[in-house]
Amino acid sequence: MTTYIIKYYKNRKMYSQDLSRYVNLTDCKRLIDMGHTVKFLEHGTDKDVTAKCLRELVRKTDLDTSILLNVLQQKDSL
Question: Is the whole-model pTM more than 0.85?
């Protein structure tokens, strides 16, 4: 299982340094569905905005909330 670091920009664009490309919510959902962990960091400050981004992901996709709980538990152990 890999942890993907996603840079979150103020204009709501997201960039994965691991994938070397911009990603969208569907890409992030796919990573989570595959069992990977995602961590969202605000561009420029590296402030952890994972919870904010995951809330948006749940609202805008059909992400299972049990998967979300698993991701949040993994985040706490990082």
Answer: no
